[in-house]
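Private note to self, pasted from the team thread so I don't lose it. Backbone tokens:
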């Protein structure tokens, strides 16, 4: 649709227009409204529009990594989200939308930063536990732990490969992790058991 192309062109110009002096967060807040109102796709406009916010902030080097996940805030305050977007469209009232948007950015960023602190604390605690309990396997145990921060579900077979251990030794190591409350068996099976780094996953709840 040429109409949509024109509106998308307009959005792009607005995003890059350096004659408009406005803080990046305000600019992307307005652009998100604009994008959702243009609604260029049949589906996925919400998701792409939220991605746009995070990727814009990365491109402006305000974020070093795409780690601002606003979807939880919008989902939690959904009717306000829709109401505020509608208010811009129907009444030209940007202020309520922008306040809502900035509150979301603030809350989400704080939450992410708290979670990160908790992850670092957990890492330190678990490392200490392993140094105190794994004996001469301590180094291998820390290798397994660092893998678990990337991939919190694990089979014994994987532990074998990651740590370069025999099946017996890998089993022993995984058992130690279970005893120390680091891993928990979640499959309920006796063969091909699956273990979860539960204290880590709990931090994201
Ligand atoms: N009144 C409104 N004004 C502007 N955008 C709106 C309005 N109501 C809903 N939207 C946007 O439309 C999105 C839903 O569109 P959709 O294409 O189904 O996206 P998705 O499939 O990613 O959820 C919502 O997340 C919201 O961003
Ligand atoms: Mg949809």
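Design output:
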């Amino acid at each position: 649709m040429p109409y949509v192309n024109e509106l998308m062109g307009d959005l792009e110009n607005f995003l890059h227009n350096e004659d408009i002096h406005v803080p990046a967060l305000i600019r992307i807040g307005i652009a998100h409204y604009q994008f959702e109102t243009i609604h260029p796709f049949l589906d996925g406009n919400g998701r792409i529009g939220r991605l746009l916010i995070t990727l814009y902030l990365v491109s402006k080097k305000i974020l070093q990594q795409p780690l601002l996940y606003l979807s939880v805030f919008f989902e939690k305050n959904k009717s306000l989200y829709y109401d505020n977007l509608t208010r811009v469209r129907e009444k030209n009232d940007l202020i309520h939308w922008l306040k809502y948007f900035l509150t979301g950015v603030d809350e989400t960023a704080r939450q992410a930063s708290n979670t990160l602190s908790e992850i670092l604390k957990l890492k330190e605690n678990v490392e200490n536990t392993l140094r105190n309990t794994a004996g001469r396997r301590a180094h291998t145990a820390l290798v397994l732990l660092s893998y678990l921060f990337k991939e919190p579900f694990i089979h014994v077979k994987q532990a074998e490969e990651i740590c370069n251990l025999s099946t017996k030794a890998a089993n022993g190591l995984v058992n130690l992790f279970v005893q120390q409350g680091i891993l928990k068996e979640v499959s309920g099976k006796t063969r091909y058991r699956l273990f979860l780094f539960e204290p880590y996953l709990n931090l994201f709840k």
